[in-house]
Each structure stands twice: as structure tokens, then as C-alpha cells.
Amino acid sequence: MFDVVISFIELGFKHIIPLGLDHILFVLGLFLASTKIKPLLIQATFFTTAHTISLVLVANKLILPNPNIIEPLISISIVFIAVENIFITQINFRRYWVIFLFGLIHGMGFASAFVETSINNTYFYTSLFSFNVGVEIGQVLILLLAYFIIGKPYAAEIWYRKKIVIPTSIIIAIIAIGWTYKRLFL
Asked: Is the CB of residue 32 less than 8 Å from the CB of residue 169?
């Protein structure tokens, strides 16, 4: 059983780093909106709670999302968060619920990677939990790296929003628009 736990933690982690550039950009979008720990943790908690719920629902076949719909929605969610970062200067309560909704969508994307590898798995719930732990480790690592490399040293600078948040958000939005187009039309 220990091998199953380690294997699925690795699988979940790899779904974020290096394979989950879309999820990395979403989490960076969360980071860019607030480099203060408390709002960042609240956003991450809403996202984690939501994607855990949808991951469990999809893995148990209680909902059967169409990847042709989910994948474009994931990239659209990244565009939304990035564009919102350009125009908001403070996190509000509505953003938490938007993140929760997007977390449900991202969880359906995570589920596709989990379901592909867990067919006939004797340790289904152990695997599911371990996969989710791996995803969380990857996301937390991204947030910590962003915080210690960018947020902590530069967030208090007067130029931070103008030279870091807005340009990075624009780049993230452009990349995600490209993904949306690709996922919808190619």
C-alpha cells in the first residue's frame, strides 16, 4: 500500500510540475492578486476544496464531464483570473467564489489524469487521496517559490503592481487565450 501512496502522490505532483502549465499559471494568477499570506491562503483553500470535490465526484463517476468542454473552460478560467488581476487592487468576497467555481472545473481536469491510471485499483480511495496530496504539494510549491522569489522581496515596492503584476498577468492571459483557441478550434 505504501507503494500505491507514493506512486499516486508522484502522479499528482507531476500533473502540476512539470505537466500542468495551465494549473501553474492559474495558481500564479492567484498569487499575483495578493502577495499577502492570509488572502493567498484563503484563495488556495477555496480552490483546493472545490477541485477536491469535483475530483471525487468524477473519479466515482457521479458526474461525467466532457473533456472537450472542460479543457477550454480551464484555459478560460486562467484568462479570467489574469484579466481580473489587471483591474483589481484588492481581493473581495466575490473572487473567492469565482475561484471556487474555477476549482470545480480544474478538479474535473485533474480527474482525467487520475481516472486514466486508477482503473481497477484496489486502493481506490487511498490512490485518490494520495493523488490529491501530490497535486497540493505541487501547487503549494509554486506558491511558496513565487512568494519567496517575487512577493517577499518586491511586493512592498511602489512599482510592483505596474512592473510585475500587470505585465505578468497580461502574459498569462495571452498564453491562456492561445490555449483556449487551440482547445476550441484545433
From this structure: yes
Backbone phi, then psi, for 120, in 5-degree steps? 60, 30
Q: Under a CB-based contact definition with an 8 Å cutoff, are residues 124 and 5 in contact?
A: no
Q: What is the spatial distance between Cα 9 and Cα 133, in angstroms, rounded to a whole number? A: 6
C-alpha cell of 127? Answer: 490512490
- Contact partners, residue 164, CB within 8 Å, separation at least 6: 32, 150, 154
What the block records as the C-alpha cell of 170 is: 497580461
- Output the CA–CA distances (angstroms, integers) from residue 76 to 26, 35, 59, 82, 120, in the order listed: 10, 23, 23, 10, 33
First-to-last C-alpha distance (Å) of the chain: 41
pLDDT digits (tens, 9 = 90+) for 49-78: 999 999 999 988 899 999 999 999 999 999
Number of domain units in the chain: 1
- Domain of 160 in residue numbering reads as 2-185
pLDDT in tens, 133-146: 999 999 999 999 99
